[in-house]
Description:
The protein is α+β, with helices and mostly antiparallel strands. The chain folds into three domains: 4-63, CATH 2.40.50.140; 66-134, Orthogonal Bundle (DNA polymerase, domain 1); 149-200, Helicase, Ruva Protein, domain 3 (Orthogonal Bundle). The protein has ten helices and five strands. The protein is globular and about 45 Å long.
Amino acid sequence: MIAKLKGLLDETGSDWAVIDVVGVGYLVHCSSKTLSALGEQGEACTVYTDLQVSENDMRLLGFAEAAERDWFRLLTQVQGVGSKVALAILSALSTGELQAACAGGDAAMIARAQGVGPKLAGRIVNELKDKAGALPAGPGGVAAAAATPQAGASADAASALENLGFKPAVAARAVAVAQAELGEDAGESDLIRVALKRAAG
């Protein structure tokens, strides 16, 4: 499965972007928050991805942060939430706001998203409230300082742990602990080495 793309931002639309990776253009569907974070056309960018396959469709979803991808996967596990609705929620709310809404039972906040009625918002809150604390919240979230690795070396380190088979939430927490131990300027290889010990422990 394609887990991450690094390339140049080739083109964007209302809810999609084309990432040029060594001459191959990948069409990725994105939230509005991810689209705004990708930068200008022709600039280098990184997107974390999730590949969704159905009977008559196959699409690549792109996210500016691993935390946003983790929340997308969690949202689409809720009955009635497909990729379109999940992206609408992630366009309306940051991952921090989403985590706070689920943890606090605030269905009205989730219902702000386009296409999400009160009934579906209530179901999302009920099904995800116990899982909200297990995922990183992203910048500005209630668990951001403790659980979310920052962009750059730590984000790459978390992705490396995921590729080794660790769950995204476990990888994020382990890298956050490693970052706290080693400092903000720690390199990717050092973060991976320490995070592996923490995740395995």
